Amino acid sequence: MLTLILIGLLGGLITAVSPCILPVLPVVFLAGGPGSRQPPGAAPPPGRPSAAQQDGDVLLAASDAPPAPKAPRNRRPYAVVAGLVISFSFFTLLGVTLISALGLPQDILRYVGLALLVLIGLGLIFPAVERLLEKPFARIPQRQVNKEGSALVLGLGLGLLYVPCAGPVLAAITVAGARGRINADIVALTVAFAVGTAIPLLIFALAGRRVAERVSAFRTRARKLRIAAGALMIVLALALAFNVTDAIQRALPDYTSAAQQKVEDSDAARQKLSGLYDNSNKELSRCEDGEDALRSCGKAPAIGGIAKWLNTPGGQPVDLKALHGKVVLIDFWTYSCINCQRSLPYIEAWNKTYKDSGLQVIGVHSPEFAFEKNPANVADQARKLGVTYPVALDNKLTTWDNYRNRFWPAKYLIDAHGTVRYFKFGEGQYAQTEDLIRTLLKQADPGVRLPPKTGRSDAALTADRTPETYLSNLRIHGYTGDPLVDDKPASYHLASPIPLNRLSIGGTWTAGYEHFTAGAGARLAMTYRAKNANLVLAGNGPVKVLVDGKLTKTLRVHGAPTLYKLVDGKTARRATVEIRPAAGIQAYSFTFG
Prior knowledge:
The chain is of the alpha+beta class.
């Protein structure tokens, strides 16, 4: 768990200094201003209202009073950050569940945060509003704590606005919360991430308090500065509501992306984040992806939560315990993934070659998209792809979680005693995998006479081929252009030029978790290196395809998600492919070959 906490903490620290948080920094800075209350028994300065009359002046101070007993230390920065951590942790874990259960709009939490920001701004301008915000805290005995109530409310609001600012760590937390699989590791990761984001903000808020205490203008013009600060918060809330602050983010380079990838997408992070849902399989972290020798990676987790079995007698399930004495190869795949499709011939060849020598191949079909959960679709595609070995339909991703997996395709080798000895994420290393299969078969039965090797290798793979790219607001990589707006139509400007392995969108799009939906004037372009380019599309209507700016074909998309070939070349090359789909067309993922 310590490693998991460290990953969350570092991920939070990186997020807190990323461009996405810059628009709210003025709020955090102003929130650190000193309180204005006099200590008990202190006389108000000449010409100034009493402490009771100043009851609303929390953010910025005004005092020309002679030396008086030392006032309680201003704890507003801590209250703001505490509210942010509480709000962020709670709603990130439970927000999706609560919203779904109540049937509320997906963006309700964001608008609640904006409303709280407006209320705080009004409280700075009108003391009566601030007293109203502090009223829920009136029963707390300590007077100073009572007076930090509005600061805590401000932090709660900022926590709601802060949710979108994250990468793979927050994605893992969000998925766990959406599935209702909240355990100690998930909570630890969430709190660590929230604390990581809070540390830089606390430093910034404390700096604001220091400036307000030291600069005389803050003390002599407190009332005017309070009004200005309140107005600034209201303006900022409106700017956030209408995405005006996006221009700031577009003007700044994504200077934290390299650090975020190094921390959150490292080998250690991948293994830790992929195993958050099941504490029984942590031994798999002993091994690393694609090692060149067999290792002991722990007992093979169960194949569970299966909706249906294909290619077995009478649809009967395959029990790993019943396969004791055999070598088992488990392949995680999904039928619309072209990377999986490219690996299937190797796996089918191993199945046919070594089946009689003690190898049992099991395909675990773990869907990326909802349409891949349909058993009839999977059966049809498995037949077309030539898959003859047993296939388990892992529609709830139970087995996926059991194996701490997060890649398509992924292969796990299990020896005759039920121990995972090797796993490989993605394509490649086919010759090495076959060699390890042969080694395990000989260990299981030293007298076995193995047939010649299949002769299939990965030499034909293009080393620098563009990887599969998902059109998902949580899983997209290589995107360049205007910041994505989740789950509602928004207008975008197509970037030009588009770097290699990057994609951009123009016109109106709705960016969802499973797919992007085209609106008026929609354009989607990607610069790639490969022989061919494909795109999974669904809906009804024409889709124009352009390569390097020239119209090459018009696709007729009709019905359920299907893989459409955009470019079919004879040799690998670098090019920019663009589609101009009709409104309502859904785009799921780019794949390349």
